[in-house]
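so the lab meeting is tmrw and i was supposed to have these ready like two days ago... anyway. pasting both below. for each one the top line is the aa sequence and the line under it is the structure tokens. i havent really looked at them closely yet so no promises
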Amino acid sequence: MAREIVTLRDIQKFTENTEASKTREDQAYLSGKDGYFDRLFKYIPAELVAGYIFVLGVINQLTDTAKVKFLHWALFIVFCILTPLYLRRLQKVRKIQQHLISVVSFIVWCFALGGPFALYGWYNPVYGEVLLPVFTLIVAIWEAE
């Protein structure tokens, strides 16, 4: 399954283009418009969230508080930058809206996991526990163009 969201407009553009080459990547447009659950899975950068969780576990073994805080934020920023790069270069996602939604999705996941936010007194895990399912259910309603 291709990672880029397929909308009705994409299918119309593809069928109108008489010179479209029928490559393997183009076959996704022939399979039909993505439904709610397809969009839900395509918007969440699961590979990056998994990588973030792994590296976060390694960082949490450090004892120096200043280093932990710095590395938490550095890791968070690096993975926020990696999200659109990964989607563009490896998953061949061209839609800017999908890149933005995926970055926001990554941020929401990090917030729910605690990440660098958990290092501050104002953070309460309940915020992330409420935000994550609400965001996840609502964001898939949007069709990235």
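ok protien two:
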Amino acid sequence: MKPTFADQAQLRTLFERFRPALHRYFQRRRVPEKDIDDAVQEVFVRLSRRDGLASIAKMEGYLFETAASVAIDQVRRARTRHRDAHETYDDRLHALEDFSPDALLEGQESVALLVNALLELPERTRNVFVLSRLEHMRHADIARQLGISVSAVEKHALKAMVHLIKRVRGPA
């Protein structure tokens, strides 16, 4: 059903007059701030589907009754869709990485370079690095496991980092 010209004019007038009040109404009903404009719009979408707006005797009451229905529907929809369990999409957090052949090859080469650099290290230094950086063990735990001092663990970790940085960055 397409609203008549008179209904469209009345909708415009109602929107301009009641939009701020509807906004506050939805805020009081704890509709999330990001959804309030959509809720206000939904009220007027529902009104636009009704024939004969001019025949409604208590328009303000009807408008807020419609708003109450929209608020209830939003709560139901949020509950059934478990909206609180979802994370809002953010390009910075969720954008796909570049998986072009060039990017993949570059990544594989970087990993190969790092693995080769790790294999160049003495076994104990390599073990300290792997336990510290890849297994996220504390230096005291590594020292206990390898039977060396914490100071020795720190020296091996530093030696590994210096070596890896030199190999990854190349000759200066």
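from a quick look at the 2nd one: The chain is about 75% helix and 0% strand. The chain has a mean pLDDT of 85. will dig more after coffe
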